[in-house]
């Protein structure tokens, strides 16, 4: 069932979203050549706890890190590790959530390490653009399928693929709530968008095939063809004043 939020609850979600977004700025600052993904994760955790919040993903379904940190052909759910050292040219997906005053925020970005290839730059830009196309569809009367359709159309316009196995979702007292928000769909189909809905729109965009596989660690998801993948996510809400991004650092 879709849990609609009233304006006081959306205000609390905005606070959780702000901490989440600021944690991504901490990650961006920490990411550079020679640093381990464990170190990046530790800085994220320290920041979130300093804010009086909890990392949403720590222990969620048994996940061992505070953030999911995934490199290059890793799509999502990478486990922070002392053995994974960032190298110039890598692209690093950081997916983070903060739980504060009863609500979660959920947001992800793809960061470059030093100089990256033109292909990687184009992919990162395209993935952000896919999010924006999806977010433009968040208005009363539209349906979830309008979001997915816009995201996938944008990805295709770059010659890229969307990951279909993992999708966006409602956000609130739980990190993952109804409805499902796929990065594909038929315009005019799916649950109707209405005031009080809070959802994570999170395009995962691949240069090659959209097909993925899981690593033996049981968590990390990789592109099937080993080509690059990028991720861009915000928790957004449809309020009385219109659509807003909850995971805004300001
Ligand atoms: Mg996320
Ligand atoms: Mg999410």
Bound molecules: magnesium ion
State the helix count: 4
CATH-defined superfamily: Creatinase/methionine aminopeptidase superfamily
CATH architecture: Alpha-Beta Complex
Order of helices and strands: HHEEEEEHHEEEEEEEEEE
Q: Count the strands?
A: 15
Give, in spatial order, the strands making up the sheet with the most strands: 8-7-9-14-15
Query: Into which percentage range does the β-strand content fall?
Result: 25-35%
Low-confidence residue ranges = none
The CATH topology, please? Creatine Amidinohydrolase
Main beta sheet strand tally, sense and closure: 5 strands, antiparallel
Could you give the topology of this structure?
Blueprint: H1 7-30, H2 37-50, E1 54-55, E2 67-71, E3 74-76, E4 91-100, E5 103-112, H3 118-136, H4 144-157, E6 161-162, E7 168-170, E8 177-181, E9 198-201, E10 204-206, E11 212-214, E12 221-223, E13 229-231, E14 234-239, E15 242-245
Antiparallel strand pairs: 1-4, 2-4, 3-12, 4-5, 6-10, 7-8, 7-9, 9-14, 10-13, 11-12, 14-15
The protein binds magnesium ion (2 copies).
One magnesium ion (MG) binds at residues 95, 106, 108, 202, 233.
Q: What do these coordinates show?
A:
The protein has helices at 7-30, 37-50, 118-136, 144-157; strands at 54-55, 67-71, 74-76, 91-100, 103-112, 161-162, 168-170, 177-181, 198-201, 204-206, 212-214, 221-223, 229-231, 234-239, 242-245. It is an alpha+beta fold. It has one domain (7-245): Creatine Amidinohydrolase (Alpha-Beta Complex). The strands form four sheets. A five-stranded antiparallel β-sheet has the order 8-7-9-14-15. α1 (7-30) packs antiparallel against α2. The chain is globular and about 45 Å long. The two termini are 31 Å apart. Bound molecules: magnesium ion (2 copies).
């Amino acid at each position: 069932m879709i849990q609609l939020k009233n304006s006081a609850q959306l205000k609390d979600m905005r606070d959780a979203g702000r901490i989440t977004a600021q944690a991504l700025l901490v990650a961006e600052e920490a990411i550079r050549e020679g640093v381990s993904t464990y170190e990046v994760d530790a800085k994220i955790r320290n920041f979130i706890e300093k804010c009086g919040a909890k990392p949403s993903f720590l222990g969620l379904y048994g996940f061992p890190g505070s953030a999911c940190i995934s490199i290059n052909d890793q799509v999502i759910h990478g486990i922070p590790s002392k053995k994974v050292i960032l190298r110039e040219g890598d692209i690093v997906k950081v997916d983070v959530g903060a739980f504060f005053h009863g609500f979660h925020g959920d947001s992800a970005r793809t960061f470059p390490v030093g100089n990256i290839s033109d292909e990687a730059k184009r992919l990162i830009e395209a993935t952000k653009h896919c999010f924006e196309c999806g977010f433009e569809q968040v208005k009363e009367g539209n349906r979830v399928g309008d979001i997915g359709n816009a995201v996938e159309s944008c990805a295709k316009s770059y010659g890229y693929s969307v990951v279909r196995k993992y999708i966006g979702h409602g956000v609130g007292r739980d990190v993952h709530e109804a409805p499902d928000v796929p990065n594909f769909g038929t315009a005019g189909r799916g649950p109707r968008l209405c005031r009080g809905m809070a959802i994570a729109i999170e395009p995962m965009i691949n240069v090659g095939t959209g097909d993925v596989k899981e690593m033996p660690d049981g968590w990390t998801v990789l592109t099937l063809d080993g080509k690059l993948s990028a991720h861009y996510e915000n928790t957004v809400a449809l309020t009385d004043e219109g659509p807003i991004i909850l995971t805004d650092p300001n």
